[in-house]
Amino acid sequence: MGVKTMAQDSSAFFTFTSEDIETNNIQNLEGVLRLLPSLHQYTIDDRAITSFGMLSLQNIAILKDGLPLMMDQNTYYDLRSIPIWDLEKIEVLLAPISNTIKNSSAIIIKLFSKSTNPIASESAIYIINNSASDLHANLQFGFSNLVHTAKIGINRSFTQALYKDVEDRGTSISAAERYDLNFRYKFQILRSLSLTISSDNSLLRSKDKGEIIEGTTRVRDVNQDFNRHILRGSIETALSKNHMLTLNGLIHRYKNGLSTWDKDLSNSEQQQYYGKDIPYSVGYDQGYMQLILTSKNRTLNYSAGVELSNTKDNQFSNINAIATEYADYSAFGMFEYQFRNTFKLQGGAKLLTNSLSGSYLLPHGRLTLAPNNELQLEATYQKSLSYARFEELFYTSDLNNGIQNNILLSPIDLNSFNFRVLIEKKHLRIQSGLLYVNKNRIPQVSNLNTLTNTGKSISTTTYASLAYKTDWINIRPTVMLHGINGTRDTTSLTFFYPELNIYGHIQIPNTSLLIGSTARFLGKNSSTYLKHNKIFLKQVDGHRHISVSIKNTFKNDKLSVLFGTTNLLNTNFISEKTFRLTNTGQELISDLDAVASRNRAFFFKINYRIK
After folding, report:
1. Backbone angles phi, psi at 79, to 5 degrees
2. Rounded to two decimals, what is the model's pTM?
3. Beta bridge partners of 349
4. Residue ranges per domain, the chain?
5. What is the C-alpha to C-alpha distance for residues 92 and 19, in angstroms, rounded to an integer?
């Protein structure tokens, strides 16, 4: 039977497999990002905060099957609404060179859907329950022949709320219930012409409970209804033996509906609250289209194409007589040339025009020495951009925490340099390198509560990873040291935090037992930022996460049973402190409870497949 080995992009830093997802009992994208190496995540006030050095999630490209998952990622998105039960693997790429439309300078996260075996039909059902009373159920059907391939899955996932103390009523993380309906269809029209259509649909419901108001029996809760719908399409045709033409399209619509309710616990009466201090509902319509021509030859490969995308607010169609929408248009080209086994040169550029801020040239390039040897040396440069948050561009102060919008904000400028040494053998893959990221034109809040493109920051990441795979063992440790200077234009303060990650699976010889484990150790994360011309220091405690599982498969791989424990050390709550830096020291501004991980839980999964 053995450990399943996944094909990995030669430029990928790390691959998170479906076995890793099972070991950690992960049900959504938020849970995946919490455990991916290089990323740092914690939750405050029921919102997950994810970063890579000085880059927020807004500056990190996330793709699913090659297309943007959340478009420009400059609007609020509840990551719990994105299921991962249909994924085969997740790749992390550091400083990739790509034609991704935006956010691709320092890191790209690629999600790959499971494929259906050719000339086969199959169905599968699984149920997961744990000691925290979470319950997840999934049903999938698949069919494939030489012409048609189809797969559909439905899923229901319920996760209990998290409280800091037993006597608390207020939730640190709200209970959430999610329903999914995903399908994928491929039509092989001709040998050289194929059409692929897929759709992801999810409904997430949650209730963020508030504490009892002192001296009363009243509480205030916030109900959330998050709806997301994505339709993707791709048609590709071979123009010749070496040329392929592909047209990709995507339509994305979502709404985060929020309602606030006042409730009297003494008589269970409740009424909706409409005050100005409540969170408001948001929603967006987004579209994306790409036409790309690729050519693959013995020594020279190239690609060229155009892209169109747009984002439109479907809750506030205009604010102060200004339409809340923007679009961009881009043309790109990329080539790859290899001279024997001496070097490989890859490069290209994208010319992007945004309807709000103008045009930008975004070049990228990579030089690889001895590309066919076991030992390779590589240097990469990538220039990209990331748009300011949608509310910073369009929403007035009453919708943006008192901060006035600025529609003239320029995109954030991202530049990355990566130097890597790669050693690849039959069962062993070792890489080590240094990633430098320069981030300019960051929106900052001035004394007048207005936004300007004055911020600058830099971050460095020194990394090393090892992947050892055989038929019986798969172990992948990584170690990273992040250096962060969040106020490069004002101070020279640089803070460092380390992380150690160990992912592994062992197949017990002559049995069907598969043992999996995940261990993450993160140091204290410190960074500075500028607001109202004052420098603030944010410190987030380090934390640890360990999960283990054991899986047994019966009846010719049809039935499998898995037992596991997540967060074995029960590291859940940590502290996020914010200080204001002064001439004489630092002044504590806030000390908040943050969630590093949910409580320790034992879980059980049973999976049955019919082929």
Report:
1. -65, -15
2. 0.94
3. 333, 363
4. 12-610
5. 16
